Amino acid sequence: MRSAEDRTPPAGGGTAGDGQPPRRGLARIADMPYLLLSLATLFWAGNAVIGRAARFDVPPVTLAFLRWSLAALLVWLVIRPPVARDWPAMKARFGTVLLLAALGVGLFNTMLYRALQTTTALNVTITQSATPVFIGLVTFLVFRERMTLRQAFGFCVSFTGVLVIVSDGDWSRLAALEFRAGDLWMLAAVVIYAAYTALLRLRPAVDPWSFMLVTFVIGAMQLFPVMLWEWSTGLVIAASTGAALTVLYVAVFPSVVSYYCYNRGVEMVGANRAGVFFHLIPLYGSFLAVVFLGERFLPSHGIGLVLVIGGILITTRRKRLR
After folding, report:
1. Residue pair 304/283 in contact by the 8 Å Cβ criterion
2. Residue 10 lies in a domain
3. How confident is the model over 92-131, as pLDDT tens digits?
4. CA nearest 297: which of 313, 312, 285, 308?
5. Which domain holds residue 229?
């Protein structure tokens, strides 16, 4: 007997198996959920690194507001989603749309940037790796769906790989990690994003770009008064090239690209399978440090890579039907 996630069809995928003509060229990527989820977490890894580096140039709420405002503008100008057509369906379930916008756009990213003010990017990515646990918990509490034994085992294997990477193979380093107030902010952010992921199945059946544009706008509107309060405390954005490039990166890649990839991936494979891809974030962070910061690729990185990929393969493997 299959779980609910095994039975979930890919909505709007346009694959050959669902009676729709197959996509061609780059459009085929939209039907590759595991590639989409891998891309989403790659850009989120860069989000943590850049958010930490820019903490003195861009205050957290200001960064979140500018990120989503610019992301909404880009989606509107470049994609031109059919919002007018989809608005009646979203209006009918506006409470759900409002909740998802608050969780996935307004709250999560603001709390992540707030966490990066007082803790390290490494600590943030480690905490973010716990997201699959909370996704499984929220999915069970709300929908009474249990994580399968195979998914739980795959999670444990993959998370072991995360620990190998962040400890460089020396387990005593884990005990030496310092946890700060920012880690509590990030833990709360992880719980919030787990709820967003689990509740995505309740979103209206509309064009994904329409849904993204509306939630981006709502999230930015929710953040605007908080940003004004932040400015009143003396925290304002620096007039620098670094600040401008930071806003541009987080608006394009962790926002427009990652949110499309992640939402589509969750739609196709379900919350629990998608959640394990968060374990790629520390792995990507290590590789980014090797490429851009000149850090060494250690044997522990190779071992961690094998464990993380192995755990993901175990978790995402579907049972063969008889």
Report:
1. yes
2. no
3. 999 999 999 999 999 998 999 999 888 877 778 778 888 8
4. 285
5. 58-316
- How many distinct structural domains can be found in the chain? 1
pTM of the model: 0.80
User: Considering the domain boundaries, does residue 172 fall inside one?
Assistant: yes
Measured CA to CA, the distance from residue 249 to residue 105 in angstroms comes to 16
For the chain, state the CA radius of gyration.
19
Question: In this structure, is residue 189 part of a structural domain?
Answer: yes
Closest to 315 (Cα-Cα) out of 279, 276, 284? 276
- Over residues 131-162, the pLDDT tens digits come to 888 888 899 889 988 878 888 888 888 888 87
DSSP structure string for 10-43: -TT---GGGTSPPP-GGGGGGG-HHHHHHHHHHH
Compute CA distances 87 → 84, 207, 210, whole Å.
5, 10, 8
Helix (H) or strand (E) holding 126, with range, is helix 121-128
Q: What angle do CA 317, 269, 272 make, to 5 degrees?
A: 80
- Residue type, position 4, single letter: A
- Amino acid letter at 272? N
**Residue 5 resides in a domain:** no
| 159, burial (CB in 10 Å: exposed 0-12, middle 13-18, buried 19+) | buried
